[in-house]
Design brief:
This protein has 73 residues and is mostly helical. The chain has one domain (13-72). The protein is built from three helices and no strands. It has helices at residues 26-33, 35-41, 47-72. Helix 1 crosses helix 2 (35-41) and helix 2 packs across helix 3 (47-72). The chain is flat.
């Protein structure tokens, strides 16, 4: 740490987003706030989990498109 006070940071911190903790499990927590809302906006504590699922979905769709393009050519 450089010892400088936080008021003089070069890049000021943004305020944290609204965050709602849920007592339900991971599947219920993601579905009750909406999958994309949780994955992209971190609506609750399961945001990183939903983002990894979204990454897997995007990777699978990309693989299918590339495989289809390979068979067409």
């Amino acid at each position: 740490m450089s010892g400088t006070p936080r008021g003089h940071e070069r890049i000021p911190r943004r305020p944290p987003p609204d965050f709602e903790e849920t007592e339900s499990g991971i599947i219920e927590g993601i579905t009750e706030s909406g999958f994309l809302n949780v994955a992209l906006d971190d609506a609750n504590q399961y945001g990183p989990h939903a983002m990894i699922v979204l990454l897997g979905i995007v990777a699978a769709v990309t693989a299918l498109v590339l495989m289809a393009a390979m068979f067409v050519i």
